[in-house]
């Protein structure tokens, strides 16, 4: 059955923060909110990693430096049996930074499996997914966290399609493939998202604890979205514009048309049968 009443709000934070509910919309200037802290909460940042020796140290440096609105921070790197120097780099980062810890898979299992391993170890009240490839900018964390601070959000997605002036996709196929998958997921789950496949998914631990994730490879995005949309009571899905610069296959991009087919399967499976 479709989750027909799930709620999606889109926040255009560069100008205004929109705190919205079913029956009313309130506008607040962003400048009034960005100084707010969230000292009683902890943010767990989960970074799945597979053969990312060229980018891992830089992304972790950015993650450690970015503003998270006064929250406590832990960074969990999950190495999925990389064949390059990524495990050694991750170990060095953990040795230098007490807030960084490293988990490893003895065999390559897939991105979703790495995320599940990270989630199991996460101790934060809020969990944020961060890719290791520098396509997404951790400077967007502050904007992604504002809805949790001000509006008690449950689920926040960073949408690349809400920030076209800060977004570069790898060609026609990736751009329109993402749009098509998002449309299918919206129809199946009663949502109005603009970016299903975004890396930046931020959610409360309490939302994650209400579902059992099953995917191992690249099925996390459609599975999590479908299962979250079917929770009772239904959580709010809030979207925030985020920057995105796609890397090329020569630079290590891993997504392919096969992952798109798997995403279609996951959308149908978890929307209708789980």
Description:
The radius of gyration is 18 Å and the shape is globular. An eight-stranded mixed β-sheet has the order 1-11-8-10-7-4-5-6, sandwiched between helices. The termini are close together. Helix content is 34%, strand content 21%. Residues 1-5 and 12-39 have low confidence and may be disordered. It has a single domain, classed as Alpha-Beta Complex (Spore Coat Polysaccharide Biosynthesis Protein SpsA, Chain A). Helix 5 (171-189) runs parallel beside helix 8 and helix 7 (220-229) packs parallel to helix 8. The chain has 274 residues and is an alpha/beta fold. A hairpin with a 4-residue loop joins strand 2 (16-20) and strand 3. It has helices spanning 56-65, 86-96, 111-121, 141-151, 171-189, 205-208, 220-229, 257-272; strands at residues 7-10, 16-20, 25-29, 42-49, 72-79, 100-104, 126-129, 155-159, 167-168, 201-204, 236-241, 244-245.
